[in-house]
Amino acid sequence: MKVTHALCQASRAMYYLNDWSGTCQVPASDVERCESHRELSANTFYKGFTVLVSPQFINETYDNRLKEDCPADVCIPVTVHLCSELKSKISLFEQCTEVSDLQSAVYNSALQHCQNVVKEVRYMIYHNGTVGITKVYAYVWLTNMTLNTRLSQKFSITFHWAKDTETFHRSGNPGYIVGKPVMSGKKVTQIFGTEGEIDKEAIEIDENPEKWLSIAGAKNDGRCDLEGNEGNSLRYSVTFGENRRSSCMIFVSPSNFTSPSACAALHKAVIQLLSGNMVANVTSAKEFNFYIATFGDAKVEDTGDWTQVILESVPSFLTSSSRSDDWTLTCKGIVTSIHIDIMFANVGSLAVPQAKILGSVFRFGPPHDIMFTCSSLHCAHETDEQHFEVVSSVSFVDVTKPAIVEFAEPPVYEVKLPHDFFYPFFSNSPLLRPSNALVLVSLFFFPSVQSRLH
């Protein structure tokens, strides 16, 4: 299957039930390359190859050849979808439209760029296990690129069961796998209300890994996504073992500084952005109902396999506003940063260690004064915007203790003789006279000694 350009790798073998993703840099140095090189055109990635239902159908007729008369129960057609720009607030299927064909890359002389260049391709293959493949979908994103530049193309292939239920992907078995999202949720209590029934606690977790532990991200223009206060804002998943720092800009106008309540609303929006709306209505650190799975395959009903996140301090929502004589508006006490520390250790055998999360701490940064400098006395009527930076970061701390090599103690040999081992050498006489065997042994050795003396 064609997935990359010759500068990286011309093709890659896709293995059944093995998900894969990768990137490649492709150039468009001139008009000829724009229109003639196959790696820039979308039809390269869904034409010219055959997808068989099962390997048992590989024979001389259909092997490595595209036949129009290939039966539908043998060859699976690739269903192509053209997708618009990726958006975090809507699903993949809502931003993609099924099409019969896609245009090839072409040079636009008026705009002087290469149009309809492949930016990303996602293959989604549905299967029934050992029965074989049932459907193949190709989701394609196109873009325009200027000549003499390079484009980073993205490719991925994922396998899904043909049944209706979605597969729940965990982050390890049992230890966390580097690069997998950190599982998180909140503790809930199931109250039965029936006499004799015991209330049970469990962890409520979203089936979508993108809704797990995450930090705020930035839009293409660097702005923070403050519109998604319902948990749909642009965020980056916290993946195990990968430290990350993200920042974005919040733009403010004079209307954000008119009163203490306006400053408080601004502060609340910033806190919701930093925490993902997890500290809403939290007045003390003990009330912070947020848990992280210690292992990548932790079960929601086993609350002992989840560790509560420590909230170092609850940010105060008491803010104030002021205006100075030098035409400066100020909101005081605004928290603009958060840092997440996640402690983990490798446990188990030295040969196959398993990564286990031991604890996590949320630390909000110190409050700052946010200022808006007016350009005139009529500041309240200005429409100009100014901005300040909001920073989120996460660090993984390895607290594994050095392994102690211990050797087993040498075995102790306990030699036990039978109770009658010396019986031939002693008689049963009460006078303890030497036995006949002992006399014979003495006579045997005595002549030999005498012969040596002579």
TrEMBL record:
Signal peptide region: none
One GO biological process term: cilium assembly
InterPro entries: TCTN1-3, TCTN1-3_dom
Pfam families noted in UniProt: TCTN_DUF1619
Residue ranges constituting the Tectonic-1-3 domain according to the UniProt record: 171-359
UniProt xrefs under PANTHER family: TECTONIC (PTHR14611:SF2), TECTONIC FAMILY MEMBER (PTHR14611)
Record-given protein name: Tectonic-1-3 domain-containing protein
